[in-house]
Amino acid sequence: MVKKIKKTNKSLKTKIISRMVILLVMLFIIIDTIFALNFRQESINEAKIRSKTIATIVRDSLTSLMVMGVIQNRKIFVRRLKQASEKVDIRNISIIRGNPVDKQFGPGFKSEEPTTADEKYVLATGKKIEKLDETFNSVKYRVIIPYKVTSRGAVDCLMCHKAKSGAVLGAISLTMNLSSVRAMTFRTIAQTSAIFFIFLIILVLLFFRFLSPYISLFQKIEKGLENLKEGEMDGAFIDEEGLPEDEAGKVAKTLQETSRSLKGILSDIDSKVSTLIGYTVIKTDNYLKDTIKIINELVRIYNFKKVIENDRTKKDIIKRVESIIRDYMCFENYAIYEVGDNNKMNLLAVGSKINLGKNDMWCGRSFLEDADICRAKRTGGDVDSLNFTCICPNFKFNVSEENEGEAVNACDEKYNYYCIPIYIGGKVGMILQLIFDNDVADFVHWMIPYIKGYLAEASPVIESRKLMELLKEQSIMDQLTGLYNRRYLDDSSENIVSGIKRRGTNLGILMLDVDHFKEVNDRYGHDNGDVVLRNVAKQIRKSIRISDIAVRFGGEEFLALLIDIKEGEGVAIAEKIRKAIESSPLEIPGGVVLKKTISIGVCEYPTDSDKFWQAVKFSDVALYEAKENGRNKVVRFTKDMWKEEGY
What we know:
Elements: H1 2-68, H2 74-86, E1 90-97, H3 99-105, H4 117-125, E2 129-134, E3 139-148, E4 168-177, H5 179-210, H6 212-229, H7 247-277, H8 287-309, H9 314-328, E5 334-339, E6 345-351, H10 366-369, H11 375-379, E7 383-384, E8 416-424, E9 427-436, H12 441-476, H13 486-503, E10 506-514, H14 517-524, H15 526-543, E11 549-554, E12 557-565, H16 569-582, E13 586-588, E14 592-594, E15 598-605, H17 612-628, E16 634-636
Parallel strand pairs: 15-16
Antiparallel strand pairs: 1-4, 2-3, 3-4, 5-6, 5-9, 7-8, 8-9, 10-12, 10-15, 11-12, 13-14
Helix pairs in contact: 1-5, 1-6, 6-7, 7-8, 8-12, 9-12, 14-15, 15-16
């Protein structure tokens, strides 16, 4: 980390210095360019002024020579003028005569004749021509200035010349060498460049001397902010030793205090949410991600709890738990068992990516008959196969096929299991079993706290639904016989009839009454009478299908609804019930053996009646016929049994 900071610090210094140097060099280039351009322009302006001055001097001198009558000596004047001009970098100075002068005074010297197109153009138009000729080696400024006839000013041209006002009498052509000016400009730029680079070196040295501590501080702050962004609160702390006592140092100290405060807040959030959901998520060095993770988990559990609280049945909640285990926790092999009231184990849900065989369970069959065989149920604690080999002999791959349920010496180490007891109403009510391979064992143990969090939320809701189902069951069940009561029949008759109509089948209605039951109560007491009723109910349940419905209609009278039977089949089933009861004598205290019989009336809906309750009444009429004709009989309802006009 130290090497990385030093390397980054060096890189930062290099960047700042390089950018500062580039900026200053660019500024220097811009300033020198402006200086050179201004110097060039001033030089050109100076050349224009000088050329105008020379042209004026030449004009006035020629006028003076003309007035004094010695104009013929002008050639000497021009030669001396050239000699004098060369000392001030003026080259190729010449005087050109115009046509008005030649016409009045005759042709002049050959050197006074125009030789270039520019000179002829100026004489013809009277317009001045300026040209700047710049090459790598030299800079020349050439100008041709015309002399026009004028009567204004100090010189009245019309006194000597016979020409119209504005006519071109001649021109002066001269070339100025500005190369020395450019050379001086370059020397000046070179001198300023040398001064600039000396200043730049001094500035860089001063930067290293005075700004290095601030660069180091900035690097620490940058690193701290990066760690803060990544949630590494400890990495955001800055060593306060050597901090400058200025605004920069205050910024570093503020970052330090902010990091400590934020770390405390996030730790407090983590602690409170962990207390709320009942477990702590796996920690990393990233406080922000850990906080987001635990808050997301809280939201998921809240949504899960909110959903299951609106589920109507225990079965729906089990499906939700199964979905969490399978889809969210990604377990393909699992099972959920329920401990029944009779201490038997019921399989509620199972997941498997392999064929488990006919039992379709991860545990042996004896497990279903006695819940205490389950180690998790018996101990009330987690069972982890990785803690001890073959810790649970009831696991499917730890038992032999010849003697299922008994422990064997060899265990299949391909599959591991983790069983979690789920407490409902203060005792173990369910078991969650997770099956996994060796290569995902660490992942499973990492997920256990999360799974328990969801189970903890589901447990009270399952308990509530079980209680509701129990209350509902008690309200529609006869407590003595375990059969449905009359209330159930009242609530469910419409649904039963609707199903028969929809499927187009028949409903067999059997009305059953125990023969001479009052004698049992009078002679042997009501307790023994209850024994008789429970036995009758037992034989009825054994003689009908699971889909059929048995109801205690009242007293010693029972009703059996045979769902989806063929026409006439009700009599055969009734006869089966009658024989079962007749052949099942009861021994009561005192060595007395009771052999009871039953009479049964049979009616079929809609064959005998298209009204359900009328069909029930008809079965009761048939039962009356059985009683009248000797009891212990099955009588099928016929229309002649109904003597009244209407129902």
